[in-house]
Amino acid sequence: MIAPVVSRQGSFQEMKDIEGPSMNPAENQTTFFNNDTDRDPPILIPKVPIREKVIQFLDSYFMMAFMGLLAIYTLFGDDIRSSSFPKSTDETFFAIATTCFAIFSLEFLICCICKKDYPFSFYFWLDLVSTLSLIPDIGWMWDPIIGVKDDDDSQHESMYKQANQQSSVAKSATKVLRIVRLIRLIRIVRLYKNASAAVEKHESDSEDEEEIIIPKESQVGKQLNDLTIKKVIIIILCLLFILPLFDTEMWTTKQTSWDYGLQEIEKFKDEPENVYTVISKYISFHEDDDRPIIYFILVNPQLKLFYSWSTTTEVSSLRYYEKHFATGDFSVAVFDLRYDTKFAAELNIYQTLFICIVLTLGIIYFSKDADVLVIKPIEKMVQRVYAIARNPITAGHKRHESAFDIIMKQNKRFLCFKTNESDDKAKFEIALLEDTIIKVGVLLALGFGEAGGDIIASNMQKDKELELVKGNKIVAVFGFCDIRNFTDSTEELQESVMIFVNEIARIVHTMVDTYHGAANKNIGDAFLLVWKFSEKDFSVVDGKIQPNPESSKAKYIPDLALFSFLKILAKINKDPVILKYREHTKLNLRMPNYEVKMGFGLHIGWAIEGAIGSQFKIDASYLSPHVNMASRFEAATKQYGVPLLFSGTLYDYLSPNVQTYCRHIDTVTVKGSILPIRIYTSDCDFAELTPSKGRERTKQQSRHKRRILERKLEGGSMKSYELYELSKEIQSMKKPFTREFYGAFGAGMKAYIEGRWNDAKEKFEECLKIKPRDGPSITLLGVMSECDFEVPNDWKGFRVLTEK
């Protein structure tokens, strides 16, 4: 079938008449319904490789949170052990550290196997070093490595000298590795980044329910953030390693009273009568110190001199770094350093917290400017491109925060002075680029319309040039509307005719869009409107449409389609912008008592939706005899003297309450079809309508009203027929049509179909006494008068609709 086009006079005509066979559904079955090539291929769900599943699991929020908690423990666990727990609990802490080491090692191994770019990357070495830095926290592994061995034999001087050397080595090695373990902070930073991304996505979803799924982070943003993190980590680690080199304690050792006192005792080793006095003073001086002496021994085999002293604190109960061995040639003193180690552990906790803050803030604020000025705007533009590629129609309706708005919002947090936003906006080229993308997306949506969404999406997601493919079979309510006397109006309005048409289009498109329809064609004086159903609402079987009983849209969309046309008729006769043309001098000279009038036709059926054209120009439209049928009804409104006609097929899908607003005015056959079609109208009288205040509803307000209406209808809190009952405009237009009028016309219509034309004549004439200008009554009286009110012999209750 060929879609209708517009002639020079502005009314829809058919490029090719509809022949009888093409209108027969049985003959169309082969073309449209039994063609295997038209069937959609089965949907195959791709299997996700095990490697991808493992990566998804490792990158999941649960695993990131779990590994982050382990990383936090490994940062502070050993210091908490040293500052708050005795040596007897070391085995428990070593077991926990061993478990963490095993988990981190397993994760490291899995990443090496599953992530292609991970081996020998920056994060590979970072994770390797941070994992190995856990070894000093595991005494079972670390003590043998550094040669530390706790021995209960406190009677051997050589043991203490060796232990003192081992303790010094262990302390130095541990001090270095404490710095290395701060690399584990990178896990905390990764956790923060993923949590921030999740929060931003949640806020975005709450702002716009229709937001589509997009990549979490752009490649540019990911690369730039990784580089920033690497640089900050390297700088901080370099500072941590280099700054201790400038400390005097790194190069010199201060003599303490512990070692100086032993040197004085050694001077009296040959004077037994004085050595005990010196030892007593040495012990008493250090006994009540914060670092008390807990053990002392002096042995001089030559003089057979032996002295031993100890406290209740066992030397073996202290960790190797919690005791200090002061040694001389013949004497050894052991001091309790738990005060120092506890204080040092607490300082290490504070240092770690400070470095955490510095590292996190450094990564955040070093990348903040680039993130705000470049990355966020780019990601916003990527979102728009994805939105246009996935659903250009919806993308055109969305409101987005622009890149410039984001930049100014961030700047206002740090600037205490006001800036000229209009001047600043011109400085941000990226804002100009973003605005251009938005405009292109909106123009695509406006240019292609509802039917062009799949065309745009399919071609934008391909690398090839424009590809014209077969169409999709859909079910929809099709509506045509036409501006009356358009040729005369164009000749008088000249250049202003564009404003004239657009002012009418504003009302038509706004009403149709608000009530779940979409504009498809705007050609001169005519508009094609569509209320499209999805496959779950309607199906096509043997050329006939069948609604899904469980579909709510199949029940209320037909009501909304008729309601929107009635609202357009009311607005055309109320809107002050349209009413001003009644006073237009040139229009009234050519057409006295000029009023803007329109004709409307509605029909429901199937159609082929797709692209029509070539590589040079395409249009998105619908091809179907049902589309042509709606055009025929619109053209027939002139014959019946009513502004609106629709088919009996659509009438059958209206809710019972809405059907009471409709009037059956004829049953006919159209050219190319032998099947009778009932014709209905919904009566309108505009005499009692008063001009409105002219408040123009914005596109955002219309979309908001549409969403609210959809939620109410889908949720069952509102029925579609309530729109008719609550509309003051529709009630005003229906008021002149009384029960007496409808009773007379209904009786006349029944007599007309049954072939009792004399009775029908009386009833229709009775209707004209009530409504003298009732178009359907005049038309049917004219049809019967052509046969002198004698019923034809072949009368079957319908006639052939002739074109006049």
TrEMBL record:
Residues 477-634 form the Guanylate cyclase domain. PROSITE patterns: GUANYLATE_CYCLASE_2. GO terms for cellular component: membrane. Keywords: Membrane, Transmembrane, Transmembrane helix. The chain crosses the membrane at residues 57-76, 92-110, 122-142, 228-246, 347-366. It is a multi-pass membrane protein. One of its GO terms (molecular function) is monoatomic ion channel activity. One of its GO terms (biological process) is cyclic nucleotide biosynthetic process. InterPro entries: A/G_cyclase, Ion_trans_dom, Nucleotide_cyclase, Volt_channel_dom_sf. It is found in: Membrane. The keyword Transmembrane applies. PANTHER family: GUANYLATE CYCLASE DOMAIN-CONTAINING PROTEIN (PTHR43336:SF3), OXYGEN SENSOR HISTIDINE KINASE RESPONSE REGULATOR DEVS/DOSS (PTHR43336). This is Guanylate cyclase domain-containing protein.
